[in-house]
Specification:
Layout: E1 9-16, H1 30-40, E2 44-54, H2 55-60, H3 69-74, E3 80-89, E4 92-100, E5 104-111, E6 121-127, E7 136-142, H4 147-162, E8 170-175, H5 183-191, E9 194-195, H6 196-201, E10 218-223, E11 226-232, E12 247-252
Parallel strand pairs: 1-2, 7-8
Antiparallel strand pairs: 1-12, 2-4, 3-4, 5-6, 6-7, 8-10, 9-10, 11-12
Helix pairs in contact: 4-5
Length: about 250
C-alpha cells in the first residue's frame, strides 16, 4: 500500500514596513513592529520598503538597530533571509526582503524599474522545504505607483513565473499598488495565479490606509498550493505600525 504524504501547512505574512515608521513618519516603531511580526508565527515573511541602512536615521534615533532592518526583524526566529536592494540614496538604501524558517537555497533580485526616480525590484527566492516536499518558490513584490509602469512590471513578473518549474509550489506576495484592480486578470491569464482572498472570499482585502482601509493594494497570489485561511491584520497594533495593513494566509502543499 502506498503511503499518503500529509499536507505541509505554511503560514505566510506580507508587510509593507514603511521603513520602520508610522503613517506620515511621525514615530519610529521598528521594535513594536518586530514584536507584532513575531506574534503571527509566520513561516515566510515578505517585506517591502525595508531599510538596508540609513546613516541619518541611525544618528537621529538612539534605539536604531546596529544591523539592517531585515536582520533586526528576522532576529532568532527566521534563520534565513534575503534582501533585494532597490532604491539607493546618499544616506542609505531600501528594498524588499524575505524572511524564512526554511533554508534559502538561492535568490535573485530582478530590476523592475521603468524610468524616473521610482526604483522597484522582484525578489525571487527558492526555499528548501522538508522532505519529501518540492522546493518552494517565493517572489516578493512592490510595484510602481503609475499604472503604465505596473503593467510593464506585471509583464516582467509573468515572464519570471514562466521561467519556473510548472509544478513548483509558488507564493507571490507584496504591495501591488493595484488600486484599479487590474492585476488579477493579468496574473490569472498569463501565469495561472490565484489571489488567496479572492479565492476564499470572492473579493480582495482592503489594506490601505491601515487605520481606515479603503484600497486593496496588498495581495498574496499562489500556484500549486491549497489555500486554507486568509487573514487581514487591520486592528491594533497593526493599524498603528505602518500605512498598510498586513496580510496573512495559511496554505497547504
Amino acid at each position: 500500500m502506498t503511503a499518503i504524504t500529509p499536507h505541509l501547512k505554511l503560514k505566510i505574512l506580507t508587510v509593507n514596513t514603511h521603513k520602520g515608521f508610522t503613517f506620515f513618519n511621525r514615530k519610529f516603531i521598528l521594535h513594536e513592529l518586530r514584536d507584532a511580526v513575531r506574534g503571527v508565527g509566520a513561516d515566510i515573511v515578505f517585506l517591502q520598503e525595508v531599510l538596508g541602512t540609513h546613516d541619518r536615521h541611525a544618528a537621529r534615533f538612539s534605539n536604531w538597530p546596529q544591523m539592517s532592518q531585515y536582520e533586526f526583524l528576522a532576529d532568532s526566529i527566521w534563520s534565513d533571509y534575503a534582501y533585494g536592494r532597490n532604491a539607493v540614496y546618499p544616506d542609505g538604501h531600501h528594498g524588499n526582503a524575505l524572511l524564512s524558517k526554511f533554508p534559502i537555497l538561492r535568490f535573485e533580485n530582478r530590476d523592475a524599474s521603468i524610468r524616473g526616480p521610482e526604483r522597484r525590484g522582484l525578489l525571487h527566492c527558492v526555499l528548501k522545504a522538508p522532505a519529501p516536499y518540492a522546493e518552494i518558490h517565493a517572489i516578493c513584490v512592490h510595484l510602481g505607483l503609475a499604472e503604465a509602469h505596473r503593467r510593464q512590471q506585471l509583464d516582467m513578473l509573468c515572464k519570471m513565473v514562466h521561467e519556473l518549474p510548472a509544478d513548483a509550489p509558488l507564493v507571490i506576495a507584496g504591495d501591488f499598488n493595484d488600486w484599479r484592480r487590474r492585476a488579477n486578470d493579468i496574473l490569472q491569464r498569463c501565469a495561472g495565479l490565484r489571489e488567496v482572498f479572492v479565492a476564499a472570499n470572492g473579493r480582495f482585502a482592503r489594506t490601505f490606509p491601515a487605520r481606515w482601509p479603503l484600497l486593496a493594494l496588498d495581495r498574496i497570489y499562489v500556484r500549486n498550493v491549497r489555500v486554507h485561511q486568509p487573514i487581514v491584520l487591520s486592528s491594533r497594533p497593526w493599524s498603528h505600525l505602518s500605512d498598510h495593513a498586513p496580510l496573512a494566509a495559511e496554505v497547504l502543499l
